[in-house]
Structures are given as structure tokens and as C-alpha cells.
Amino acid sequence: MEREELYRGKTWIAGGVYAGIADYYGLRKGAIQGVFVLGTIMFLVPVFIYIVLRLLIPKRPR
Domain of life here (predicted)? Predict the structure, then answer.
């Protein structure tokens, strides 16, 4: 069984990082983005996590 690769999503919101994670794990995009917003308001750590993920996760090939 071939495992699907993790790529950034096709949305322009937040660069597609969280959309790609949601697609990879089969979750709703809004839920992932909501957790990010709440985490940012409370802790500010998700901003740094986002920056690292944006640099590491490649764009989906066409």
C-alpha cells in the first residue's frame, strides 16, 4: 500500500499548510485553522510552528 505524501493544500489561506495537513490526515480544514487561531491567541507558539512547516512542506506538484 502506497502512502500519500504531505503537501501544502491548494488554498491561498495560510499558504495551504493547514489545508495540506487536513487533507493528509483526513480532517476538516476549518478545524485545523480554528485550532491554529485559538493556539495563537493563547500561546503564540503556533506562529513559529507555521513558519517551520511553511518552509518544510513542499507545494503539491501539478
Answer: Bacteria
Q: Is 54 helix (H, G, I), strand (E, B) or coil?
A: helix
| DSSP per-residue letters across 18-47 | HHHHHHHHT--HHHHHHHHHHHHHHHSHHH
Q: Cα–Cα distance between 16 and 21 in angstroms, integer?
A: 9
Domain residue limits at 17: 13-56
Taking 70 as the pLDDT cut, the residues of the chain under it are 1-3, 12-14
Verdict on whether the full-model pTM lies above 0.85: no
- Asked if 9 and 27 touch (Cβ cutoff 8 Å), the reply is no
Q: How many domains does the chain have?
A: 1
Give CA–CA dist 52/45, Å, rounded: 11
